[in-house]
Write a structure and sequence with these properties.
Arc Repressor Mutant, subunit A, 9-stranded mixed sheet, 3-stranded antiparallel sheet, about 40% helix, binds manganese (II) ion
């Protein structure tokens, strides 16, 4: 057991969904495109080119800031963040400094049956840099990514465990997808993380005197590995009585190993100053409230409501809210149903339906089976019209064909035999054929009755109502 606990803050860079780049008309859909085919004087940083802000990008940032419970700077502006690097030919990045679009928000995450608020320091608008590729001795630069809109989300150092960071990262990805401001496709670099972390002795309250940053983490699993590695590395240094260097580290590979890149610069080093080529931003109350109206119910609230309204446990609710469309699908299936039925419908969806979707590689959008079909199957099974096994078979058939389960049951006469006389007739035959089992039964062997019920079920191809069969067998035998 380590005597240290991590203190972690995160920065998230998110590429939002826009047709064109942040300050020019070039296409922002750069992924996989031929290098340097989506460029113009603005995103190449040529002298004299003038930036014009992308309204849709700003709308996305504002919407996200509101969804993250931020206060909004109704008067906001762009600033130049000055630094020299070959992926930034202007010599500065257009970003926001003292007046970000949103500030002081929070995101709720659930940790071990409890919930915790991770505070959001700021949400601001900026632009991406170009992509650099090392090829032998050459450094190649692809400007297709240069100037793509980025929203930056900065948290306070509120994370105290790896679990909290991972929960937050996943929730964040889910929120931006619910909001439809970004696809957050990490394989395309649409969501990236930067980590700042240090260790303190357990129970200590103040922040450690140093902070290590790790930049450009492109996946949640690598994020997790980096934290594990950093905890190990920093623990070792602290155990030797030293204090880790305040520095920026970069990923060495996907194992989460990092190498020192540079000692940390202060914001002073960037010599931020207001961007003179773009007028300040002003949001009217009316505009803000219009944007607020477009925010749907978000994952955390939806989960709480599902637990309350449908009686689901946390695990089930979490699976169902994984995407907004999946949650909507469940709600269509369980609309107007009592809690007990709604829970049963949820288990059909989470269990059998999801299994089929994975096995047959069918996405929710391509499903032939309708929500109402699942509720019909759930109802037919729970009211005893069909057995659970038959229910599963019908589900698969509906899944493949889109055919109404009720019609399948009728057409193929799959309904359970609830007719007493029909079962009695079969039961008598089975008893006659199995004198040894009958004597076992009379000698109080409990398995004997189960065996006889099984034989009746077999004879009727699983259509006999098992409970009724058991009663009938007992009454004949006594
Ligand atoms: Zn351009
Ligand atoms: Mn940034």
């Amino acid at each position: 057991m380590s005597i240290y606990e991590p203190v972690i803050g995160l920065e998230v860079h998110l590429q939002t969904k826009t047709k064109s780049k942040m300050f020019c008309g070039c296409s922002s859909n750069y992924f996989g495109s031929e290098p340097n085919t989506r460029t113009c004087p603005v995103c190449l940083g040529l002298p004299g080119a003038l930036p014009v802000p992308n309204e849709k990008a700003i709308e996305h940032t504002l919407k996200l800031a509101l969804a993250l419970n931020c206060s909004i700077n109704k008067k906001s502006k762009f600033d130049r963040k000055n630094y020299f690097f070959h992926d930034l030919p202007k010599g500065y990045q257009i970003s926001q400094y003292d007046l970000p679009i949103g500030y002081d928000g929070w995101v709720e995450i659930e940790v071990r049956d409890d919930s915790k608020r991770i505070r959001i320091k700021r949400v601001h608008q900026e632009e991406d840099t170009a992509k650099t590729i090392n090829e032998g001795e050459n450094l190649l630069i692809d400007f297709n990514k240069s100037g793509v809109p980025l929203t930056e989300i900065v948290t306070k150092t509120d994370f105290e465990s790896i679990e909290e960071v991972i929960k937050f990262a996943k929730r964040m990805r889910q929120i931006v997808r619910y909001l439809d401001v970004s696809d957050a496709d990490m394989e395309k670099g649409q969501m990236r993380f930067e980590l700042n972390m240090s260790l303190r002795k357990q129970g200590e309250k103040q922040l450690p005197s140093y902070k290590v940053e790790v930049k450009n983490i492109g996946s949640i699993s690598v994020l997790e590995k980096v934290i594990i590695r950093e905890v190990e590395r920093q623990t070792k240094i602290l155990d030797e009585g030293e204090i880790p260097d305040q520095e920026t580290r970069g990923l060495k590979d996907m194992t989460g190993e990092t190498v020192s890149q540079r000692v940390k610069e202060d914001s002073d080093d960037y010599r931020y100053f207001p961007e003179p080529d773009i007028p300040p931003l002003e949001f009217s109350d009316n505009y803000i409230s219009e944007i607020r109206k477009t925010i749907p119910e978000l994952p955390h609230e939806k989960k709480m409501r599902f637990e309350e309204e449908y009686g689901l446990d946390g695990g089930m609710a979490e699976v169902l809210i994984s995407t907004k469309d999946f949650a909507d699908w469940y709600e269509m299936a369980s609309e107007g149903k009592k809690k007990e039925q709604a829970i049963d419908i949820a288990s059909w969806i989470i269990g059998d339906l999801k299994k089929l979707m994975t096995a047959k590689k069918v996405s929710l959008k391509k499903l032939k089976i309708k929500p109402v079909h699942i509720s019909k199957i759930s109802e037919m099974v729970s009211s005893g019209i069909i057995s659970g096994t038959t229910g599963k078979q019908i589900l698969e058939e509906s899944f493949d064909t889109g055919k109404d389960p009720e019609i399948i049951v009728k057409e193929r006469n799959l309904g359970q035999i609830g007719d007493k006389e029909e079962i009695e007739e079969v039961a008598s035959r089975i008893i006659e054929k199995n004198p040894k089992v009958v004597s076992d039964y009379k000698n109080k062997n409990e398995n004997a009755l189960k065996y006889l019920v099984g034989q009746v079920m077999r004879e009727t191809k699983g259509r006999a109502n098992p409970k009724l069969t058991e009663e009938i067998l007992k009454s004949i035998l006594e």
